[in-house]
Amino acid sequence: MAGKPLMVGITGGSASGKTLFIKRLVDSFSTKEVCLLSQDNYYHDRHLQPKDGKGVENFDLPESIDHINFIKDVQALHRGESVHKKEYTFNNPNIVPKMLQFDPAPVIVVEGIFVFYFPEIREQLDLKLFIDAEEHIKLKRRIKRDGQERGYDMDDVLYRYENHVAPTYDRYIRPFKTEADIIIPNNHSFDKAMEVIVTFLKQKIAIGT
């Protein structure tokens, strides 16, 4: 790989649609063109998670992330080194975690709700994308996702959203919206933004970033 990779950071509030956006983005390229590194694989184990005043684990704080190793692996990929990391399974006992390998590529996508918050990561980024959505839409998506994928009941989802998710967005995510190069509204569709970004990245890959 000639030269340094183009580092693309993607963030936004919980349930803003980052996962779908990133999947479609990455699917537009080969694995030799784009490498995706997700903050989701850097959560501390459940017993190490910070707890709120009611003793409920709060997975929506910067302290919930193993940011030291996250930063180290972002920097390694930036240097052109491969990274190995055990998959984080969101404490689901029915899933056996796999060992994941991340290889250097012309474009490195780093995603997660805190990728702009941690300065050591933010400073590595050449292009910053912020996925945005209205609050009621994010809540609807969160209810659906946490019920289907993580087995939380409605009361649990609403408690976490009100006491963990929303305060974290206001304190640790939204203030960095002004750092973004592109803000992508995702209340209904991001198709036009996707077309623009894919075209831009393909041009960068063609000229060697």
Intertermini distance: 10 Å
Which percent bin holds the helix content?
A: 25-40%
Shape: globular
Highest-level CATH class? Alpha Beta
Counting DSSP E segments of at least 2 residues, the number of strands comes to: 7
Unreliable stretches: none
Helix/strand class: alpha/beta
As for the number of domains, it is: 1
In N-to-C order, the SSE pattern is EHEHEEEHEHHEH
Radius of gyration, CA atoms, in whole angstroms: 17 Å
CATH fold-level topology: Rossmann fold
* Order of strands in the sheet with most strands: 2-5-1-6-7
Major beta-sheet overview: 5 strands, parallel
- CATH 2nd-level architecture: 3-Layer(aba) Sandwich
Q: Looking at the chains present, what oligomeric state does this protein adopt?
A: single chain
β-strand percent reads: 15-25%
Separate helix tally: 6
The CATH superfamily is known as: P-loop containing nucleotide triphosphate hydrolases
Average predicted confidence as pLDDT: 92
Walk me through what this model shows:
The protein is an alpha/beta fold and 209 residues long. It has one domain (6-206): 3-Layer(aba) Sandwich (Rossmann fold), CATH 3.40.50. The protein is built from six helices and seven strands; from the N terminus they run E-H-E-H-E-E-E-H-E-H-H-E-H. It has helices spanning 18-27, 67-78, 119-122, 135-149, 154-173, 191-206, and strands at 6-12, 34-38, 83-86, 99-102, 107-111, 127-132, 182-185. It has a five-stranded parallel sheet with strand order 2-5-1-6-7, with helices on both faces. It has a two-stranded antiparallel sheet with strand order 3-4. Helix 4 packs across helix 5.
